[in-house]
Design a protein that fits this description.
single chain; 145 residues; alpha/beta
């Protein structure tokens, strides 16, 4: 706290003021730090991400397995599908069944996303509702080396 003594003539008057310049400087620096760091902390829209779980696949006889190999070839229950029309016809025949069978997609890890996406597109066009992806379990997360 600084004190200034000013006087005129015989009667001195005391004026007590606080020098706020250093306080303002510190507050401005803190404000700038918070303005820079808050966007880094808030990354995106807050969503709760699912946790990966390994649930054993229970295959029923009526389930359909569609496999896509690394070259992009499509297999319907181990038989190769040669054309898009053939795949769509097979999907439409199964989509009208009650209850509708599940489709399990097994994609090679080296297959292109375009090939898997094409299968999903054809399943949607054919009217299939229950679609699942078959993956290998993460053995390192289970403690198996």
């Amino acid at each position: 706290m600084a004190m200034n003594v000013q006087g005129s003539g015989d009667e001195p008057s005391v004026m007590a003021t606080i020098n706020t310049t250093p306080l303002v400087d510190v507050m401005l620096v803190l404000l700038i730090i918070f303005l820079i760091t808050i966007p880094v902390i808030t990354k995106t829209v807050p969503v709760k991400l699912p946790h990966a779980t390994n649930i054993p696949t229970q295959t029923k006889p009526q389930d359909i397995t569609i496999a896509v190999d690394a070259a992009g070839n499509i297999f319907w229950n181990d038989k190769e599908v040669t054309s898009d029309n053939q795949l769509l016809t097979m999907i439409e025949q199964q989509a009208v069944k009650t209850p509708q069978p599940e489709v399990h997609i097994r994609g090679d890890k080296n297959a292109s996303y375009k090939s898997i996406g094409h299968v999903l597109y054809e399943l949607q066009r054919g009217g299939m509702v229950k679609v699942a992806f078959i993956t290998e379990p993460n053995l390192s997360a289970l403690g198996v080396h």
